[in-house]
Amino acid sequence: MKAAAALARTPGRDRQASLISSAASLFAAKGFNGTTTKEIAKAAGVSEALVFKYFPTKRALYAAILAEKAPLSELLNAVEAVARTRDDHRVFTLIAGYRIRPGADPTMLRLLLFSALEGHELADMFFGKQHRVFYDYLAGYIRTRIDEGAFRRIDPLLAARAFIGMVVHHRLLHEIFEVPLHCPHKDIVRTYVELFLKGLQRPAAAKKRGLTRVR
Amino acid sequence: MKAAAALARTPGRDRQASLISSAASLFAAKGFNGTTTKEIAKAAGVSEALVFKYFPTKRALYAAILAEKAPLSELLNAVEAVARTRDDHRVFTLIAGYRIRPGADPTMLRLLLFSALEGHELADMFFGKQHRVFYDYLAGYIRTRIDEGAFRRIDPLLAARAFIGMVVHHRLLHEIFEVPLHCPHKDIVRTYVELFLKGLQRPAAAKKRGLTRVR
DNA sequence: TGACGGTGAGTAACCACTCACTCACCGGAC
DNA sequence: GTCCGGTGAGTGAGTGGTTACTCACCGTCA
After folding, report:
1. CA angle B88, B92, B97 (to 5 degrees)
2. What b-and-e string marks burial along B4-36, b requiring 16 or more CB atoms within 10 Å of the CB?
């Protein structure tokens, strides 16, 4: 009940969360080195000193941001469910659609890139655990479909990287380099999936797509 | 002859060049904000004060780095020559091969990303003039091939972005996120080009330029 | 009372940048 | 040869401002 009472008020937790979200958008906007603790405090509406009451160092605050987010697990679950139906089109549309959905928050992409570039060990926490799993999962799906005779014989990992590359790069252009989209979101996803699946499918399998039952 | 004598020695030019190259690798490694002028001076083997004899500000030194490099023009010329032959395979192989050639220096890619993320106007100098032209050029080629009936009807700009995305993303994974290549460079390029061209070409176009049923 | 959320006013270290200065070298006058 | 003034490469020792981080202290509740 002490815990419940604490949870009911918890100004501390609120402060902590608002500090984390303020810091996240600032780090994403200007990088770790480019952001000062004073700015973070101002954005969260508290004094600079309070930042150091909650987080011993600036870097600890950075780590807390990454620890808070688990961005890909729900997508992985969704993909896994669709993947069982062997509807390739839906699988790839789901992935592409998730990665470049219209109102997506660019914060995490920027933070990921900054982490990787600024090169400290935090980038691994971010990238290593989440994203590599994702590439491997898609590569596994492609490998299965090759074995089933639906896809052409092609390196599954390269194919997975190629597809995610297409999509992520598009997001990169749009969100980081601010290149305009130039056509509706649905068309972008459709074009990418179409383009990619045509290259992946065996000519014969393309006619009756998704219904091959070869084991 | 005074100028000729000055050019014969030119310790100034040497210093300037070594400052630029020292700064380039430091900025690429740690970002603009993450690099101090003291470090740059030490890397170039001079005093910090001398840096400011050659460049009025740290940012001017950054600008000098970008001004020094013109990384894509020679590729564009090569592609333009091959493009006239209408050998799609060679065109795409040339682009992919250039972008992910084995010993490529990751400095400029890192610098480009840092510039874009740190968000100052210098990123535009870098990205705007060189890379956008490149996307447009490839999109133009794809549009021509669609008109000629060799490629399927697909958004040319999206297709261009998709292909460059595949390749650039691979480089990104390798150089920035240090993901191992896992197969020979030639195989990577071949797989990407094969995958992409299969998706782009009209099914019948490979054999003859006759009419094909659409969808 | 005292634990707790919160702060103003620091501190030492570090930042980009400046300045007064040294020194090697040069062409020319003697 | 040697003295000379001029020049430009190069530097040690700063400058003021900013940084991450600290600490004594305050008001408010249980």
Report:
1. 145
2. eeeeeeeeeeebbeebbebbbbbbbbbbbbbbe
Q: Do the beta carbons of residue B181 and residue B188 sit within 8 Å?
A: yes
3-class DSSP state for residue A151?
Answer: strand
Q: Are B134 and A133 in contact (CB under 8 A)?
A: no
pLDDT for B84: 95
3-state secondary structure of B201: strand
CB A68 within 8 A of CB A122: no
Residue of A100, A115, A189, A195 for testing the chain B interface, max B β-carbons within 10 Å: A195
DSSP B106: T
> How far does B196 lie from chain A, in Å, by closest CA?
6
- Could you report the per-residue pLDDT of A41-73, keeping only the tens digit for each? 999 999 999 999 999 999 889 888 877 765 667
Distance between CA atoms of residues B138 and B91, nearest Å: 9
- Mapping DSSP to helix (H, G, I), strand (E, B) and coil, where does residue B151 land? strand
Q: Which residue in B127, B214, B1, B100 sits closest to A158, CA to CA? A: B100
Query: In chain B, what are the domains?
Result: 2-68 (1.10.10.60), 73-200 (1.10.357.10)
Asked whether the beta carbons of residue B195 and residue A197 sit closer than 8 angstroms, the reply is no
As to burial, measured by CB atoms within 10 angstroms (0-12 exposed, 13-18 middle, 19+ buried), residue A191 is: buried
Which residues are within 8 A (CB) of B170 and not within 5 positions of it... i.e. 6 or more apart? A161, A162, A165, B100, B188, B192
| Alpha-carbon gap, residue B84 to B81, rounded angstroms | 6
Q: Can you give the C-alpha Rg of chain B in angstroms?
A: 22
CA geometry: angle B190, B195, B198, nearest 5 deg: 115
Question: A31 vs B117: CB contact, 8 Å cut-off?
Answer: yes
Which contiguous run of DSSP H or E holds residue B149? none
Does strand C come within 7 Å of the CB of A50? yes
Lowest mean pLDDT among A104-108, A138-142, B126-130: B126-130
HSE-up (13 A, CA, CB side) for residue B170:
29
DSSP labels for B91-102? HHHHHHHHHT-T
Burial of A162 (0-12, 13-18, 19+ CB in 10 A): buried
Q: Which residues contact B60 (CB under 8 A, 6 or more apart)?
A: none
A29: its two tokens: 């906007």
What distance in Å separates the CA atoms of residue B178 and residue A119, rounded to the nearest whole number? 11
Residues A143-190 have pLDDT tens digits of 999 999 999 999 999 999 999 999 999 998 888 888 888 899 899 999
